[in-house]
C-alpha cells in the first residue's frame, strides 16, 4: 500500500542548530512531494514542493528538501533554526498523476529551545 | 485571491445538535477536500469533490456526516446529530486539476474548530 512515514512525532532543536525532519514514502514511481507547515490555530501552508525538476528544492523561510529516489525520501532541512520555526510540519505525497488526492504523514511537531 | 474561506471559525454546541460547516474554495479550483484533524488521529481525509461531484467519501466516519457541493463556490459539511467525539478541527482545501502548469498542491482554509459538549 502507498504510504507516507514521518519519523519522529516530536523534534526539539536549539536555536541556531540544524533542523532535520524526515519523510519517507512507498512508491515505485516518483510522485509529487510536498511539505506543509501548520502554526498554532492556523491552516496548513505550503513550504515547498518537488515536481520532478531539481532534486534539491528550496522553499520559504529558509527551508529546503532533497528528493532521493534511491532512498524514497524527501527530508526537510534548515541550516539554522529560529524561534519562529516552532510549528507542526507535514509531509504529503501525490502518488497518482490522475488523482488529485494527497496522502499526508502524521506530522512532526518542531520545538525550538532558546 | 482571497484564499479558501471557512465558517464558522469556532463552534461550540451540545451533543445531539446539528452542526453545519461551510467552505468557499478558491475561484477556478475544481477540486474540494474536507479534512478532520484531531490529536489522536492526525489529519484525515473525509471526502473530496471534483466539479461539484463527490469522488471519494470513504473517509466519512458514519451516516451522521454528510457533505454537499451545490455549486463551484460553496460546500457544506453537516453533522447530525453531533457527538462529543466529533470535536476536532475541520479543514477545507481546494486545488486545480494536475497539469503542466499546476502541480496540484492543496490550499487550505483556516479551519473550523468544533467542540461538542
Structure description:
Chain A is mostly beta strands. Chain A is 0% helix and 49% strand. In chain A, a hairpin with a 4-residue loop joins strand 8 (64-68) and strand 9. Chain B is mainly beta and 117 residues long. Chain B is globular, with a radius of gyration of 14 Å. The termini of chain B are far apart. The chains are: A mainly beta (114), B mainly beta (117).
Low-confidence blocks of residues of chain B? none
Q: Main beta sheet of chain B: strand number and arrangement?
A: 7 strands, mixed
- The protein's oligomeric status is heterodimer
- Radius of gyration based on Cα positions of chain A: 14 Å
As a percent range, the share of strand residues of chain B is over 45%
User: Based on CA inertia axes, which overall geometry of chain B fits?
Assistant: globular
The helix count of chain B comes to 0
The biggest sheet of chain A, with number of strands, parallel, antiparallel or mixed sense and barrel status, is: 6 strands, mixed
The proportion of strand residues of chain A reads over 45%
Helix percentage of chain A: under 10%
Average pLDDT of chain B works out at: 92
> What does the radius of gyration of chain B come to?
14 Å
The SS-based structural class of chain A is mainly beta
Q: Order of SSEs of chain A, N→C? A: EEEEEEEEEEEE
Give the rounded overall mean pLDDT of chain A. Answer: 90
**Which percent range fits the helix content of chain B?**
under 10%
| Total beta strand runs of chain B | 11
SSE order of chain B in H/E notation? EEEEEEEEEEE
Question: Helix and strand layout, with pairings?
Answer:
The complex is a heterodimer of chains A (114) and B (117).
Chain A: E1 4-5, E2 10-14, E3 19-21, E4 24-25, E5 32-38, E6 44-50, E7 56-58, E8 64-68, E9 73-78, E10 87-94, E11 103-104, E12 108-113
Parallel strand pairs in A: 2-12
Antiparallel strand pairs in A: 1-4, 3-9, 5-6, 5-10, 7-8, 8-9, 10-11, 10-12
Chain B: E1 5-7, E2 10-13, E3 19-24, E4 31-38, E5 42-50, E6 53-56, E7 65-71, E8 74-79, E9 88-95, E10 107-108, E11 112-116
Parallel strand pairs in B: 2-11
Antiparallel strand pairs in B: 1-3, 3-8, 4-5, 4-9, 5-6, 7-8, 9-10, 9-11
Amino acid at each position: 500500500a502507498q504510504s507516507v512515514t514521518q519519523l519522529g512525532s516530536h523534534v526539539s532543536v536549539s536555536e541556531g542548530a540544524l533542523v532535520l525532519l524526515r519523510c519517507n514514502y512507498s512508491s515505485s514511481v516518483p510522485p509529487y512531494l510536498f511539505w506543509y507547515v501548520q502554526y498554532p490555530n492556523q491552516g496548513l501552508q505550503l513550504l515547498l514542493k518537488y515536481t520532478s525538476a531539481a532534486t534539491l528544492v528550496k522553499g520559504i523561510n529558509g527551508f529546503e528538501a532533497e528528493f532521493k529516489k534511491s532512498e524514497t525520501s524527501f527530508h526537510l532541512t534548515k541550516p539554522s533554526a529560529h524561534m519562529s520555526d516552532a510549528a507542526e510540519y507535514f509531509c504529503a505525497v501525490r502518488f497518482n498523476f490522475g488523482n488529485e488526492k494527497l496522502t499526508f504523514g502524521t506530522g512532526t511537531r518542531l520545538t525550538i529551545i532558546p | 485571491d482571497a484564499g479558501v474561506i471557512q465558517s464558522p471559525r469556532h463552534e461550540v454546541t451540545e451533543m445531539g445538535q446539528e452542526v453545519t460547516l461551510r467552505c468557499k474554495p478558491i475561484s477556478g479550483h475544481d477540486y474540494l477536500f474536507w479534512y478532520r484533524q484531531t490529536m489522536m488521529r492526525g489529519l484525515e481525509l473525509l471526502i473530496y469533490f471534483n466539479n461539484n461531484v463527490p469522488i471519494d467519501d470513504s473517509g466519512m466516519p458514519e451516516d451522521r456526516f454528510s457533505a454537499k457541493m451545490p455549486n463551484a463556490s460553496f460546500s457544506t459539511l453537516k453533522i447530525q446529530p453531533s457527538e462529543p467525539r466529533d470535536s476536532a478541527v475541520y479543514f477545507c482545501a481546494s486545488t486545480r486539476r494536475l497539469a503542466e502548469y499546476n502541480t496540484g498542491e492543496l490550499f487550505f482554509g483556516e479551519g473550523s474548530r468544533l467542540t461538542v459538549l
